[in-house]
Amino acid sequence: MQTAIASQPQVQPLRLAVHNWDTLYEGLTFESRGRTVTEADVVAFSGLSGDFNRIHTDREYARSTPYGERIAHGLLVLSILSGLTTQADGYRAIEPSIVAMRDIACRFPRPTLIGDTIFVRVTVLEKKDTGKVDRGDVTFRREAINQRGEVVAQADFRMILRKEGAVA
């Protein structure tokens, strides 16, 4: 029996060339490929963001924390989650219909360690008809999942998508 590992999830391709508000349905799910979070990622993100919190940058300090080692920045993991999502075939089928992002709500239920490999599972959580003839709201739940099957980041992205026949 073969099982899927975090670095090579079973991707579920969307059946239509392009999805829009009308063709998406609650529960639709797709996955990204995997990516390993590296020491270089943490160092670069510290420099870019100016966040040199010792839990990310100081090995000796991190040993004294409940994690026992340095962890990746939550916002770094959120950024990787976003990037992996946009590279997935499922997202590419939706992308032409995206008008804007309305809102994002996120949480980090577990730490991401340097060396963890994560992939993203995206699920259509909710569709709302806004009453506009050309667009509606869709909430996508994006979960970053590590090689141990643990959700390390969960973000709900509320997006505006075009409806069938709407002009870009």
UniProtKB/TrEMBL annotation:
Gene3D superfamilies: Hotdog Thioesterase (3.10.129.10)
InterPro entries in the cross-refs: HotDog_dom_sf, MaoC-like_dom, MCH/BMMD
Domain of life: Bacteria
Location of the MaoC-like domain: 33-138
The name this protein goes by in its record: MaoC-like dehydratase
Gene source species: Caballeronia choica
